[in-house]
Structure formats: C-alpha cells, structure tokens
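Notes taken during the Thursday session

The instructor put the following on the board and asked us to keep it in front of us for the whole hour. The protein is 8-oxo-dGTP diphosphatase. We were told not to look anything up and to reason only from what is written here. First, the residues (158 in total):
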Amino acid sequence: MAQNVTIQLMTMCLVQDGDKVLLVNRPPEKGFPGFIGPGGKVDFPESLTNGAAREVYEETGLTVKKLVYKGLDEYTDPGSNYRYMVFNYLATEFEGELLEAPPEGELAWVPVAEAVNLPMQPWFKRRFPLFFEEGTFEIYQNWDGEKEIAIDQSVKRL
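Then, after some discussion, the predicted structure tokens were revealed:
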C-alpha cells in the first residue's frame, strides 16, 4: 500500500582553506545554536549541488567551486511518515569576500583539528570529522517521535 511520505531535502557544504574550515556560529534565536556548516533547504527544482552552492553564497558571500560529495545524513520518523535527508559536500576552491553581516550568524575560519572542541549540535559534531576522511559516509537514524528515542541508527563509511 502506498504511503504519503514527506521528504525534506537539505544540503550542507563545508568550505575548507588549507587547515581551516569556515563555520557559522548560529545564535540560539536562529535554531541549532553553536558552530555549524553553511547549508539549508534545496529549493524545487534546483539540483542538490546548486542548492548547496546557493546556500553557501547566501550565508557566507563565497562562491564555491568543485564540490565533492561526502555523504548523506538521513533521519526518518515512521510514525509521522517523515524523511529528512542532508546531502553533504566539501569545497576547497572558492572566491569572493565574506559577508560583513551574515544572515545566519558570525562566520569564523577555524582550524579543522580544533573545530570539534567548539560548542556545536551533537549531530553536527558526529558528522564533522567525516567530511575530511577519504570516501563517503552514510548516517542513518530511525526515530520514534512519540517516545522521542532512536529506534535504529548507524554511521557507515562507504
């Protein structure tokens, strides 16, 4: 039997410059407070990579080039027929100047090796190191929204 499933497509694109990565320090009123990578919703009918590049530009002022697909972070809630998919990219080539008044929070170039010591959401802290490993990853979490617990979860390096 066919089900009506709500699927939300998101992107995140970390921008790396040598041993540093560009992060957004989001204030609590924006949701997901702490340090996080640029990203957001994919607008229909844009492609995933165009969505990732657009989000980086809107949030940082930088135009990214040569995006490398790093992996998928997926969350499902069968009780509400909901699937949330974040397609993750890494860009090491970019041009432009950082925005003086970024819309999502203060921008900071942070050493990759020190970034996980900053305040960040647990799901981003889990995902962050995977951007800098060889290959791709898949993070999957099946969630019981009623009980607010994970039913099943996995992190795979592919």
